[in-house]
Design goal:
Alpha-Beta Plaits; alpha+beta; RRM_dom; 224 residues; single chain; 2 domains; cytoplasm; HuD_RRM3; RNA-binding; four-stranded antiparallel beta sheet
Length: 224
């Protein structure tokens, strides 16, 4: 499904503020996931009612459309809809794991918009730099990763988040005396949509014998 087809599918329910299909940064191939932001909450709700469980043209199975967060929050919504996935496409590491789970169980992770406009400054969209938005650092979107093992290092974070998009920086917080990971770290990604997708896919992901907790960094998160 192309971005144009994605917009055609959702535009019947209201005015689309922005849309995007996530693609692999290396191959340019669609990851089978797209974002739609509507102008009004009611439009997003109608899209969910109309498209949830439906099979778009060209798809082999129905999609599931829902909000990731409570739709009563006072902000416009961002719909993240799973598009048709080719059974021959494979992803490395956790991304492959999640793609397989999506395809087999017809699941769909949703991202929830913090503002009406996209928090990225491309295609003429409004920049949110300077606003008090969780995770936004001015140079990217900071993600808090919790429940890492003591032996975890920066390479683990690169491997986890790299497949989802551009990663600016990773940092594992270490114990001063032992130099072992204290159980958490931070990842800064350039693009909000890619960061949201990484969070939706990796939160609850099992790494070894640990289940990761992944979210946008807030003021309450551990400071690095």
């Amino acid at each position: 499904m192309t971005q144009k087809e994605l917009e055609q599918l959702f535009s019947q329910y209201g005015r689309i503020i922005t849309s995007r299909i996530l693609v692999d940064q290396v191959t340019g191939v669609s990851r089978g996931v797209g974002f739609i932001r509507f102008d009004k909450r009611i439009e997003a709700e109608e899209a969910i009612k109309g498209l949830n469980g439906q099979k778009p043209s060209g798809a082999t199975e129905p999609i599931t459309v829902k909000f990731a967060n409570n739709p009563s929050q006072k902000s416009s919504q961002a719909l993240l809809s799973q598009l048709y996935q080719s059974p021959n496409r494979r992803y490395p590491g956790p991304l492959h794991h999640q793609a397989q789970r999506f395809r087999l169980d017809n699941l769909l992770n949703m991202a929830y918009g913090v503002k009406r406009f996209s928090p990225i400054t491309i295609d003429g969209m409004t920049s949110l730099v300077g606003m008090n938005i969780p995770g936004h650092t001015g140079t990217g979107w900071c993600i808090f990763v919790y429940n890492l093992s003591p032996d975890s290092d920066e390479s683990v974070l690169w491997q986890l988040f790299g497949p989802f998009g551009a990663v600016n920086n990773v940092k594992v917080i270490r114990d001063f005396n032992t130099n072992k990971c204290k159980g958490f770290g931070f990842v800064t990604m350039t693009n909000y949509d890619e960061a949201a997708m990484a969070i939706a896919s990796l939160n609850g992901y099992r790494l070894g014998d640990r289940v990761l907790q992944v979210s946008f960094k807030t003021n309450k998160a551990h400071k690095s």
